[in-house]
Amino acid sequence: MSLVTVSHLSKKFKSHDAVNDLSFSVEEGDVYGFLGQNGAGKSTTIRMLLTLVRPTSGNIKIFGLDLDRERKKILSQVGAMIEKPDLYKYLSAHENLSLFARMSGSGNTKKELNAQLEMVGLAGREGDLVKTFSQGMKQRLGIAVALIHNPRLIILDEPTNGLDPQGIADMRNLILHLSRHLNKTVIVSSHLLHEIEQISNRMLIIDEGKKIVEGTVDSLVDPAKTVVEVTVDDLAVAASRIETTLWFSYLIKKENHHLIFQLPRHLIPELNRSLVQLEINVLSLQAKNSLEAQFLSLTRSKQYVAAFTD
Amino acid sequence: MWQLLQIELLKIFRKPRTYISFGAIAAMVIIIQIALKFDGQSYIEFITGSLRDTLDVPVANILNGYFVCFVILNLLLIHIPLLIALVAGDSIAGEANMGTLRLIASKPISRTGLMLAKFMATVIYTALLLIWLAFISLLLSILIFGTNDILIARNDALEIIRSNDVLWRYLAAFCFATLALTTVAALAFLLSVFADNSIGPIVSTISIVIVFTILSEMQIPLYDRTIKPFLFTSHMLAWKGFFYSKVDTTGSSIPGTIENIRAIGKSSLILVLYIIGFVSAAVYSFNKKDILS
Amino acid sequence: MNLKYWFSLFICSFVFHAARAQDASTLMKGIRSSLEKINDYEADAKFKTEISFLKVPDAVVKIYYKQPDKIKIRNQNGISLVPKETVSISMYSLVNSHYTVLDGGTDLIQGIPVRIIKLLPADENADLVLATLYIDYKRMIVLKAKTTTRENGTNEVELFYGKFLPIGLPDRIVFSFSTQEFKLPKGVTFDYDDGSAKNNLTEPRKNQRGKIEITYLDYTINKGLSDSLFK
């Protein structure tokens, strides 16, 4: 039995259809990536999972229970952080955590609350008002709030929004920790496919409220279409030397000191060796997985890509 | 529910804005007390007007703590509802604006329970504000001006109530005022459901109170028959009814009596119905609401 | 009837009226002398107000009087609205001013036959224009007085005697006077409209009359009162 089963979920607002006949399932232990452009319907779907938004039609089951009928029971085992976590700025970190713990039905002691704050890296800041916190600290407090009642399912909507690179890395590690060491099931939504790809084992791509594709990350990433970007010091010389080789058939673009190949992943080392043998001065070689290409081709963004490519 | 109420009370009383109301009341009342201390005579001369041609009006005795308190309550008819709206209008809209509404609404608590807890917390805040008002306007006035009989100015009559007959009336009046202001709180609470920013509900509430008060006080026969009996602002003034005594056959007022207790009872009932209506509508709307903030 | 008859009748009526005029002055002298016996008094009294636009409970007041015209009504424990025109209450000042005394005939007041004495002030510029006294000539007490002043119109005071008659002071006084319309702007008072039919006056708003009834509970007379009591 899936931990989360969403069947034919739709949400129609007055001006548009935000979610259209969406179905997917999340298994226990998954880190489930929920991927889509801004406005694709990710947040609306997540809000429906959390009963913040009422579906127009469809059904949601969590832990095998109908969400409509067993809302309280289900939500007592769900922790969520929706977009930028906004907490009570005029209360301290400890007060915020205590307040939300009580709302979640969790009777945590002061020691437990402080331990939770320590876990998210806020030790020593328990008594400080949230209005003095940086965005990263608020995000960590938001995570603490989501986890304080030891939920089975954790839903994170755009958890890396507004974070610096260190913050993003920390968030990524935390999610992996939750999944691998604490056996939590995590649903993560994001428009940053690179982040999703790194942490998720299964994902759903949604566009204009509809499911585009669902499956494991591996199945979605086609190793036969890896894009390799080679930066060279002299594009003209490099291009002329490539022309006479079999690598020319893999060359898809050359621009601004870049030679861009699309080839099976396992051929990358051989390409590397050939470039050296051809005495082409390579400044860098970067393999881009095909997920980005897949994502861009499947979603609306192709219209924007067309505007920016040659 | 008790836990939720505690949480809501914590939120209200940790918010700096809440204390603006208490401070504002203290400031307004003290300003009026200072003015009356220095020039209460002019005010009494104004309200006794042409009467002083015929009767000897003992200004010094009239200017006492009970009278000053009544003047204060009369002058703050619009201001106090504004301070109530300040907190009540922030109930839901403030949370939406802060971004915390989506957090609390995704917790395993019923939306109805949440709304009722929020409203009860608002009612407690209203009651505490009234207690503070009673302390500042009545007790402080008594300390500054002493006590004596109270002169009540109605638009076509003056009434004198003996000093030993006043305190219980004030107690009843403040209790009624709590009910009246709870009605304003309920209205602001309802409007708060529909906004993502508390300014809207606060301004809307006070606008409605002002317009309805003007309609309640206008002497237009058409409105007397049709609109006025149903406006909650017409009934909010019923606290004054505790200061209108019955008269005997010779026209002397009878101590310890109320001129029209049935009317006050009817006004109370109407206000209770308004509160139930506003809160029910708020709960219903909130239960149906998509939280997108 | 011949001329002699009519002349006799004329002489008799002239003598009669002269005698009556003399009686009016004698009557006033008698009233003055009985009032002179009271230099001052301090009294406890019940004070009842009957004015249409005033709703006041009955009060217990202190009344101080000192010859010739000092009167102070004081509510020790509260507020009482006392008519400004109290001169009629002070009979002594009334009867001791300079007036032309005229006989006004007889009447029945409180079922008692009285002589009507009209007093016209000697001073043409005085506020008092006319005073009419209704005197119980048998007991030499004033039962009623009407005063007409330029400022306040016509006021009436009726005096009722009983247990304090031996000292020549009334048990009860009813004072009636003109009042003007009382109205405040609605926006000042924000009255509570309880929806009942307004107890509006049936009389026209102008030219209303008010009444004050003082029932004396006790008198302490001629003990010597300080002038400061009347400030």
Briefly characterize the structure.
Chain A has 310 residues and is of the alpha/beta class. Chain A is 35% helix and 28% strand.
Overall mean pLDDT of chain A stands at 86
> What count of helical segments of chain A does DSSP give?
12
| Alpha carbon gap, first and last residue of chain A | 49 Å
* Principal-axes shape call of chain C: globular
Shape of chain A: globular
Give Rg of chain A in angstroms.
23 Å
Radius of gyration of chain C: 21 Å
Described by strand count, sense and barrel closure, the largest sheet of chain C is: 10 strands, antiparallel
- Give the ordered list of helices and strands of chain A: EEEHEEHEHHHEHEHEEHEHEEHEHH
Number of strands of chain C: 12
Poorly predicted parts of chain A: 301-310
Strand segment count of chain A:
14
Query: What portion of residues of chain C is helical?
Result: 10-25%
Main beta sheet strand tally, sense and closure of chain A: 6 strands, mixed
User: How would you classify the quaternary structure?
Assistant: heterotrimer
Number of helices of chain C: 3
Strand content of chain A: 25-35%
Derived structural class of chain C:
alpha+beta
Distance between the termini of chain C: 68 Å
Widest sheet: strand ordering of chain C: 4-3-1-12-11-10-9-8-7-6
Which class do the helix and strand fractions of chain A yield?
alpha/beta
Describe this protein with a few key phrases.
heterotrimer; A: 310 residues; six-stranded mixed β-sheet; 14 strands; 35% helix; disordered C terminus; C: alpha+beta; ten-stranded antiparallel β-sheet; 12 strands; globular
List the helices and strands and how they pair.
The complex is a heterotrimer of chains A (310), B (293) and C (231).
Chain A: E1 4-12, E2 17-26, E3 31-35, H1 42-49, E4 57-62, E5 65-66, H2 71-75, E6 78-82, H3 93-103, H4 110-119, H5 135-147, E7 153-157, H6 165-180, E8 185-190, H7 193-199, E9 202-207, E10 210-216, H8 217-220, E11 226-232, H9 235-243, E12 251-255, E13 258-263, H10 268-277, E14 282-288, H11 290-298, H12 302-308
Parallel strand pairs in A: 3-8, 3-9, 6-7, 7-8
Antiparallel strand pairs in A: 1-2, 1-4, 4-5, 9-10, 11-13, 11-14, 12-13
Chain B: H1 2-14, H2 16-48, H3 51-54, E1 55-56, H4 59-62, H5 65-75, H6 79-88, H7 93-98, H8 101-105, H9 111-145, E2 150-154, E3 157-161, H10 167-193, H11 199-217, H12 221-226, H13 232-236, H14 261-288
Antiparallel strand pairs in B: 2-3
Helix pairs in contact in B: 1-9, 2-6, 2-9, 5-9, 6-10, 6-11, 9-10, 9-14, 10-11, 10-14
Chain C: H1 3-36, E1 40-50, E2 54-55, E3 59-66, E4 70-74, E5 82-83, H2 91-95, E6 99-109, E7 112-121, E8 128-136, E9 141-149, E10 153-160, E11 172-179, H3 186-189, E12 208-221
